[in-house]
Amino acid sequence: MKRILIISCLMLSFTVHAFCQRAAVESAFDKYHINRIAIDSLTQHNELRFNFDLITTIVTESSQKIYKAHHDASKTGEEAWALQSVNNGNPSGSDRSTFKKQHDQHIPALKPDTSTFKLVKDDGKELVVSFQYDQTSMIDDNKFMKDCLVKLFFDATTGKLLRSEGSITNSFKIKMFKANYLASTVIYQYNEVIERYLPLKEEVSINLNILGSAVDMITTNEYSNYQQP
Amino acid sequence: MRSLKLLLALFLVTCFKTVAGAQDTTQMAKIYFVRSTGYEGSLLVFHCFVDSTLMCVLNNDQYSTHFVMPGDHQLNVTAHSKSLSNQNKALSISVAAGQSYYIKIFPVKGYDNKVKIMSVAETTIRPVLAKCELKTNCIQ
């Protein structure tokens, strides 16, 4: 009986603690006039509502591929993407197929789990908030993101989001590969017309275990020339 | 008494120099060269250059830090050469005061021992730095 009481008290204290943390984050969002709807829609690919140019660079120890492409928002599905070059040459059939696979995946957007919100820093100049994704919003392909800790960095003077950082520090499985860690950074620009954040640069680094060797793979996406269709 | 004054003057000059030096770096940008992988047995050293000047010689799992003036710089890493004949394969970066820039070195395994370098985000380099050692006595 005593044990049940202790466990109940502990669970209650954790719940209260999580609630307080979330309340602190929401209070900070209000204090700095942060557009909460824009933050909640960060993972919803708002950039796909625009025409833009994209340069994707994938670097490993043995190779480097640079894909240059254009996105046309007036078209739908795979028609919206035009792969222009790979390593400054004409794309091969295999390049087109790889590119198509990367951009034609219909993985649902991940949602932040509000109960994991934490206020990391608030010094009047910079606001940093952390959270984890809601596991109910995941599918098998992105289940590994359950251990990802995301941090959002805001300029407290403007209330605008500057960048987000994500990290998985434990080993995890991504499809058929075992990975040792993952780290990512996204730099954003606020679009006043649609009142949403658009990515300017994304960098994802994964350390994979391939045939017993640890291999770094770094992928960067650089977005430019955003225009409304 | 005179020697005491001299000693005091020397002490003050040293303090001033230290403080002045510390102030200088705040107006500069910090560049990290990071080498986490490479050839077996660390037989091959990599030479890191900023604007054609040799800044550091790195072995496997080592990194070095260098302060540079804000502005445009040409970065290069070679496997063999201790000097640069041209900047054909240089990485051009524009740096700002007070900021850090992380240059990851990728050795391309093959007969010609090519090296490629890439400016990466702090999140990318953080786990790599954790397993590397800072090289302070650079030109050795």
Question: What is shown here, in short?
Answer:
With 229 residues, chain A is an alpha+beta fold. In chain A, 20% of the residues lie in helices and 46% in strands.
Structure write-up:
The complex is a heterodimer of chains A (229) and B (140). Chain A has one domain. In chain A, strands 1, 2, 3, 4, 5, 6, 7, 8, 9, 10 and 11 form an 11-stranded antiparallel beta sheet that branches. Chain A contains 3 helices and 11 strands; from the N terminus they run ααβββαββββββββ. In chain A, a hairpin with a 4-residue loop joins β9 and β10. The termini of chain A are far apart. By secondary structure, chain A is of the alpha+beta class. Chain B has one domain (29-134): Immunoglobulin-like (Sandwich). Chain B is 24% helix and 40% strand. Chain B contains 2 helices and 9 strands, in the order αββββββββαβ. In chain B, the strands form 2 sheets. Chain B has a 5-stranded mixed beta sheet, with helices on one face. Chain B has a 4-stranded antiparallel beta sheet with strand order 3-2-5-6, with no helix packed on it. Chain B starts with a helix and ends in a 6-residue tail after the last strand. In chain B, 26% of the residues are buried. Classes of the chains: A alpha+beta (229), B alpha+beta (140).
